[in-house]
Sequence to fold (218 residues):
Amino acid sequence: MSQKISCEVLDRLTKFFEGTPSPTALAKNPTWHATPFTVLISTVLSQRNRDEITYAASEKLFARYPGPAELMNADLEELNELISNVNFHFNKAKAIKEIARILCEDYGGEVPKDINELVKLPMVGRKTANCLLGYAYHIASICVDTHVHRISNRLGLVNSKTPEETEMQLQTAVPKTRWLEINDLFVRFGQEVCTPQRPKHEQCPLQDLCLEFKKEVK
Ligand code: SF4
Fold:
């Protein structure tokens, strides 16, 4: 897939959503993206969780523990209680407390800007790390969630089995200057048009570029 086609995809989606505010989590919630620390911790909390649940938990959490220094000394039981509406909150409470300790002890209280350092943190994989780099630091990165993985394969931008493979193939398929556009556009597109079940082909501005659509109409 040529970079010309991937640019055409991004251009058309940008035009398609022109004038409508982004519904994605980081764009909508100021508490979530106040600092690199809040982006990181909120993104960990958001794993396998609905955004509304994460907003509520993040707000309570950061009102009580606004930074890593406070969070590393948090009482685990109280922490569990604060994020109790989040899935896997026992594991997440332990993980975010440990993340806070590592940030304070190894990184001077800052969130590192290096993906190889970020993925050493508990419950931080490439998706969370790339999301952090892009949304908190505006560093060129591709955050591959389920929407990005599905849509990239349907369009034929990549041919991959895992989100990690998708990330690597998108790095070639899309010019680096446009990597940061992918997550926001594809998440919106995946929620509204190219949904997991019964994608709304009839509303899609990408029909003529889409491998999946070509297969279906054959
Ligand atoms: S044509 Fe259908 S499958 Fe292809 S990108 Fe559009 S909505 Fe998704």
Remarks:
- The chain has two domains: 3-22+141-217, 31-137.
- The domain at 3-22+141-217 is CATH 1.10.1670.10 (Endonuclease Iii, domain 2).
